[in-house]
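New to this. Look over this protein:
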Amino acid sequence: MNRLGTGIPGLDVVLNGGLEPGSVTVLAGAPGTGKTILAQQMCFANATAERRAAYYTTLSEPHSKLVRHLTSFTFFAPEVLGSQVEYLHLGDLIRDDQPGGMCALVDEITRKALDEQPGVMVIDSAKALRDFTGERELRMAFYDLTSRLAHTDTALVLVGEYTPAEMAAGVEFSLADAIVHLAYEPREPIDRRWLRVVKMRGTHHLEGKHTFRIGPDGFEVFPRIETVDAGVAAPITGRISSGIPGLDELMAGGIGAGEATVVLGPSGVGKTICGLRFITQGVIQGERCLYVTFQDTGDQLVKMAAAFGWDLLTASEKAQLVVLHVPLGELDLDLLAARIRETLAAGRIHRVVIDSLAEMVFAARESDRFPAYARSLTGLIRAAGATLLITSETTTLGPSPEPIGGVAVLFHNVILLRYIELDSTTGRALNVVKMRNSDHSKDVHCFTIDVGGLSVDRRLDDVTGVLGWSALRSPVELAGTSARRS
């Protein structure tokens, strides 16, 4: 089926290609959600000299004001006003003192569609038509209008400030081929705008809430990653080096290529250093890498790596290393997934680090959604043939909990870092908790961080309680405690 693109790539993905010619689409939502901007952007995206776009207004803002509000957007082209994008007022046709009423409106729009064959026609606001007529006449008018336009190649868009109750009962929605609901959701640290396709006849569309933003380029839609088929994991085999001295030996030769690994540990224990060393090893081997960070900027990561003698500046300048810095105040799950997808599509990526999982969950404010999101994001990265290492925060003292969101099952490998107390000295311990379908060392090792980075040291002998106690205890101590209790 040939479809009319909206001019917004992400929205076309959600709509399975765009709008169907001859169809009626309702853009519904509260004031301020962006309906008018979206409708006008569709007009400018589709208008040509041969097929103009017609924007009809009822009781909305004056045309001069509508146009003035568009001047800051890159999609706005003032030179095509009138010749390709035409603003028309319907108010004079439907005033009480004018003959014909709604019939005159239907005739005007139908004539425009048949005579000039515009690609897109908009009525803004369609809800305001209720102020001029009764429910029965309105129903007949909308039925007549949709029936006539179905035989044209014009896509009609109805814009209105409808409530959920009105969306459930209004005649516009029963006759519409597609309904797109736009919403504004206040929340901290950043408000969110989203859209949902409530109805779309005769085709598959992406379900759920999809984040959108309105910026200098107008609408930008970020399809919900759970609804996008990432494909199967790339068929890559073998093991790759972590770059961390001693760790590959504990992991039977290294991390499985194309696998997902989570590094758990409290703040300051060395998780970011693990990620930087993993990326550095890839750079050394000539691989292209992606580092996703929510706190440290690209410059800060480069300086941090340089302190250990690792040159990431050259790799960054040559685009061998891509640093995607998303400040916590701007973090949105759908936006993040879109940025990662764009980077993976721009060129082969071998290694990906995401630092960290805890910050993603905190900023997302969607704990119920997060397991499915994390599964889809992991699948997206693996389908691109990349190996993923992601960090996650645990408590500083006491037993280490599951990763936030309960997503440990998604990862092939789980590496636990933690602080330990030995002989009244605070140290660090590392152990490989899990490696799926692979043997690995079950021992707990000390590790140190010095001028050369992180390295795995001696095995911790004669201690227990690493996974379940905040302090380590020797078997002799435990035996003595048991004897006293008995």
